[in-house]
Amino acid sequence: MIVYTDVRELVTVDLDTASDTEVRVLANQILARAVADSLIVLPERIQARLDGTANDLRTFLKTNLQTSWSIDLRIKANQTMPNAGANVQAAAQEALDNGTIDALLTYLNHGLYIARALDSGSLKLYADVRELVTVDLDTASDTEVRVLANQILARAVADSLIVLPERIQARLDGTANDLRTFLKTNLQTSWSIDLRIKANQTMPNAGPNVQAAAQEALDNGTIDALLTYLNHGLYIARALDCTYQPAASASA
């Protein structure tokens, strides 16, 4: 797996005021990263300017760097499509149709691996329960609150959660006030426990990248961090672990 560098982040000097030496150092840093990313167009064009004048190099970095890099990103996106599944094909085409650097880079570094998981049938996307709460819990009728609770229950059961379904069902069996209070004050706490359980369940027998990504999400502890890991980061980490080769143990 290659995680493609965001070349824009390497440009940490002002190209209008930087010295010729600073511009040359920057160009060599970008060249090294482009070569490491197995790009085709950008390394050739940077090297040509490094072999030329300082003014040509500076002008290239100011006006043509991103254009050349975007061509490489398009090439890389196209290279993911032959013999790929339907979801990879669709995600790649969407990025290519969009055509922006952000869309192409997001596809290559993230979307590609989510699409591959979809094509293999291994993708499990957890609902963002917060998005289901589309009524004002202070003013909604008891019926609206009960309908909402049942919607959340159905989604939680579909996501194979443990804590949230049990707690919602207990309130559905109780009073309307108890149900309303639970949704207002304890829904996210109960859901976050389930997300922590799910994140922990990805770790046994997993590779080092999954272990690290899961632990980072668990250490962060927020709903956003846990949900991002489960719905996105897990699949990036698994792709990285597919290329991980542990060092061979010394023979006895």
Description:
With 252 residues, the protein is mostly helical. The protein has 3 domains: 1-79; 81-123; 129-242, no CATH class. It has 12 helices and no strands. The protein has helices at 20-36, 41-50, 54-63, 65-79, 86-98, 101-120, 142-158, 163-172, 176-185, 187-201, 208-220, 223-242. The longest helix has 20 residues, at 101-120. The two termini are 33 Å apart.
Structural class: mainly alpha
Which word captures the global form?
elongated
What is the share of helical residues? 55-70%
Low-confidence stretches: 244-252
The tally of domains stands at 3
Cα-to-Cα separation, first versus last residue: 33 Å
